[in-house]
From TrEMBL:
SUPFAM superfamilies: GAF domain-like, Nucleotide cyclase, PYP-like sensor domain (PAS domain). This is Diguanylate cyclase. GO terms for molecular function: catalytic activity. Residues 5-75 form the PAS domain. Coiled coil: none annotated. Residues 78-126 form the PAC domain. It comes from the Bacteria. It comes from Noviherbaspirillum autotrophicum. PROSITE patterns: GGDEF, PAC, PAS. Gene3D superfamilies: 3.30.450.40, 3.30.70.270, PAS domain. Residues 315-444 form the GGDEF domain.
């Protein structure tokens, strides 16, 4: 080779967009071209003499070292990908081509920055992942946890929270908060609420210091420092909330990361809105619109499950079948709106008379049914029935009137009055009408 041409090689290498590295048998850098500063943030002088593996992202070091051993054993490699930590603390994705020079005892590597390409892939993957999370999650809480995991794979997080805005009341809530250790809460809710409202109204992200939102005197395991990024959750029609993301100590969010998170936030907003509507539709299909109680369909499901448990454990359950005495008279004299208020109040009073694990359902009209599980004796059932009668006898104020009403109640126990749901319902319904006839004769 012409000596002059040989002398030009370093200058030519400095014109390359890819970084060129020469690394000795001990893994120390002996030469890099100018492109390394653009890709890694370090000047050549800052890299030469240092161990190459020290700049590799910790989670990639083991496989990178194994790859280096393969190259030094005489197996050239094209297309190996790993991550490095730039001088500014951000990660850079790199694709390598490398071979070993036995005569010079050097590993020759060419590194191409593929961070932009990886970000594009991550955005596409995040879109699919968020959509899948919304589809697969059994409830909104499960979806928030999955979205936290997805976002943490895109950007290292010290904490993550979701703020949601109720579409009817416009009240802001925080249904999910978690740091990287699984601790909660992580934010000062009153302060955070102010900033979230500002972000929701403006539709623009906001970057805040750690001290602004962090919980005072909170868990000391929560990393101090870093920054909070509040991202609006915008659907096609409105802003429905915000994502609140805390960066790791000593780091902040780059413009590229903000752009990526803004893109992901839009997907998250769409998924959340879709899941919320799905949950509402499912609830509407299984709950009574007026009282919010389980409807006949949901009651039948719970009854079937309760019977199955009883048969396995040889337990007992009871049904209470109720209707409101003279309900038609209320509708006729005060109107259906007053009747609706009466039904809502009765539903609440019945619910307050039973345990959380019991089921109160509205079958239709003024008919309610109560499913009591883990019943010990018939006397216990009668105590609940008397408690409900007493609660409903108390005056109910509707449109300035103090209504005094009563309820007729029939009971049925498993297994004494039947082995199947239909048998028990018929028995309880029959007992309710006997109770109504008895009172009609008594109060005539």
């Amino acid at each position: 080779m012409d000596p002059n041409a040989h002398a030009l090689l370093p200058n030519i290498a400095d014109l390359l967009l890819d970084a060129v590295f020469l690394v000795d048998v001990h893994g120390r850098v002996v030469y890099v071209n100018a492109a390394c500063e653009r890709i890694f943030g370090y000047t050549p002088d800052e890299l030469i003499g240092r161990s190459m593996i020290d700049f590799v992202a910790p989670e990639d070091r083991a496989r990178t070292w194994n790859e280096a051993m393969q190259v030094m054993a005489g197996r050239p490699r094209i297309g190996f990908e790993n991550r490095y930590i730039r001088k500014d603390g951000r990660q850079v994705h790199v694709m390598w081509s490398a071979r070993w020079s036995p005569e010079n005892q050097l590993r020759i590597g060419v590194a191409r920055d593929i961070t932009e390409r990886k970000h594009a892939q991550e955005m596409q993957a995040a879109t699919y992942a968020v959509s899948e999370a919304a589809h697969a999650a059994t409830d909104l809480g499960a979806m928030y946890r999955e979205i936290h995991r997805i976002v943490a794979n895109l950007v290292p997080l010290a904490g993550f929270a979701v703020a949601t805005c109720d579409p009817k009341t416009k009240q802001l809530g925080f249904p999910y908060q978690m740091d990287l250790y699984g601790n909660s809460p992580i934010i000062q809710e009153p302060t955070t609420r102010q900033y979230c409202i500002e972000v929701i109204c403006s539709g623009q992200p906001m970057l805040l210091t750690d001290a602004v939102l962090a919980t005072p005197g909170g868990d000391t395991s929560m990393p101090a420092g870093g920054a909070w990024l509040v991202m609006p959750l915008i659907t096609q029609n409105e802003t429905i909330g915000a994502l609140i993301l805390k960066s790791l100590p000593g780091t902040t969010y780059s413009d590229k990361e903000k752009g990526l998170l803004q893109f992901v936030s839009a997907q998250v907003a769409t998924a959340m809105e879709r899941k919320r509507l799905s949950v509402e539709l499912l609830r509407a299909a299984r709950h009574d619109e007026l009282t919010g109680l389980p409807n006949r369909r949901l009651f039948q499901d719970r009854m079937a499950s309760a019977l199955a448990r009883c048969k396995r454990k040889q337990g007992r359950i009871a049904l209470l079948y109720l209707d409101i005495d003279d309900f038609k008279q209320v509708n006729d004299s005060l109107g259906h709106a007053a009747g609706d208020v009466l039904l809502q109040e009765v539903a609440q009073r019945i619910t307050h008379c039973v345990r959380e694990e019991d089921t109160v359902a509205r079958l239709g009209g003024d008919e309610f049914v109560v499913l009591l599980e883990d019943v010990r004796t018939a006397d216990d059932v009668m105590l609940v029935a008397d408690k409900i009668r007493h609660a409903i006898r108390q005056p109910i104020h509707v449109d300035g009137f103090a209504l005094k009403t009563r309820t007729s109640i029939g009971t049925a126990l498993y297994p004494e009055h039947g082995m199947e749901a239909e048998e028990l319902l018929k028995q309880a319904d029959k007992a309710m009408y006997l109770d109504k006839k008895f009172k009609a004769r008594t109060f005539k």
